[in-house]
Amino acid sequence: MQCGMLLLCSRHIKQKENDIAICECKYKANDPDSACGERCWNVLTSIECTPRYCPCSIHCKNQRFQKREYAKTKLFRAEGRGWGLLATENIKAGEFVMEYCGEVISRTEARGRSQVYVSQGLKDVYIIPLNARECIDATKKGNLARFINHSCQPNCETMKWSVLGEDRVGIFALRNISVGTELTYSYNFEWYSGAKVRCLCGATRCSGFLGGKPCGFQEDSFAWEKNNERYSGGDKPSSSLGPKKRLKHDHNGGSRPLPGKQVDAKYVAQFLASKDAQEEVLKNEEERKEALSHLASVYREIEPAIEDHDMYGPANVLTDVAEQWIGASCRKLKAEFNLHSSIIRNLICPPQRAPEDAKPSAGDPDHEIK
Ligand SMILES: C[S@@+](CC[C@H](N)C(=O)[O-])C[C@H]1O[C@@H](n2cnc3c(N)ncnc32)[C@H](O)[C@@H]1O
């Protein structure tokens, strides 16, 4: 199997000078936030400043991955969940907790490895997605972040950052975390495991199992193992906790389900009185189909970026990708609106009717054309 690089090591690819993002911050001694704080353009776009290029030089605060500015933590035995990680200092909301380190491998490699791990009887899963093409595997090589357990109501989250031109994943506090609290984040991404693991996070709104999102190679079945409460061995989950259906790739190539309820325009058109009205509705239906197929082709093009968005939030979607998606979505919505409004308009207020049809039958005020 081909093995990728290890994030624990410092640098692998030399970043091209042209690709270095340089912010416009100016260090002011009386304003600590001036040196690459929350207002820094790089911070806002989840990019770490590059040493020697940052205008704030040694004062730059936006090199947390590079300088390993981790929160203080310690391992503890988490009941029923193996090892876990505790905060040994107060951590403020938004603070960087630590990087998720491990081997960077392709998604194909991750699938292969996960099958090998399952066959070797390894129960704990340490593979998380890095971007649309790669994963981080901390099974054999990693840092303390590999011990952070899942919670359905987590106090931390994962976020993708660009560090010296490479994607890296960090754990960040979602809220203020006081000393002695267990650190958790949601494993709500592709679940690289052979079995669904019963969640013991104890949250009131616990989803029941680890790994919320369906993953290409994962079977839609539970591996019921005896005498192991962590692996769905005990009482069976209620149907609401049952396996989620995997999203199938639809005919349009998108892995997203398209809207369920659709008007059957051809069927509706036959009830319209005038030929003009029928033609208008059918023309709008054609435009709606075109817009839908355009949206599907845009989706195919930008699928990797959309997947990144799902994993790490809107901050990671490039502007041109977002614009393409919004443009195609708006076109589809507009076409749908035109279709629906033409149907309603032509049903309620037909443009013209033949004189015979238009004549209300005597003594029947309900049939009067308004
Ligand atoms: C990244 S490891 C976390 C560290 C792990 N507890 C250990 O001892 O090495 C992920 C594994 O921990 C266990 N785990 C994490 N969160 C859990 C939870 N909420 N309920 C049950 N098991 C959990 C599962 O076995 C999962 O595959």
The amount of helix comes to 25-40%
CATH topology (level 3) name of the largest domain: Beta-clip-like
Q: H/E element string?
A: HEEEEHEEEEEEHHHH
Tally of discrete structural domains: 2
Outline: extended
In terms of quaternary structure, the protein is single chain
Report how far the terminal alpha carbons are from each other.
Answer: 74 Å
What is the topological layout?
Elements lengths: L40 H4 L28 E6 L3 E6 L8 E4 L3 E4 H13 L7 E3 L4 E4 L11 E2 L5 E8 L2 E8 L10 E2 L79 H5 L5 H38 L6 H30 L6 H4 L12
Parallel strand pairs: 7-10
Antiparallel strand pairs: 1-2, 3-9, 4-6, 5-6, 8-9
Describe it.
There is one protein chain. By secondary structure, the protein is of the alpha+beta class. It folds into two domains: 70-241, Beta-clip-like; 265-356. Helix content is 25%, strand content 13%. β1 (73-78) and β2 form a beta hairpin. Residues 1-6, 213-260 and 358-370 have low confidence and may be disordered. S-adenosylmethionine binds at residues 81-84, 123-126, 146-147, 149-151, 197, 199-201, 210, 230.
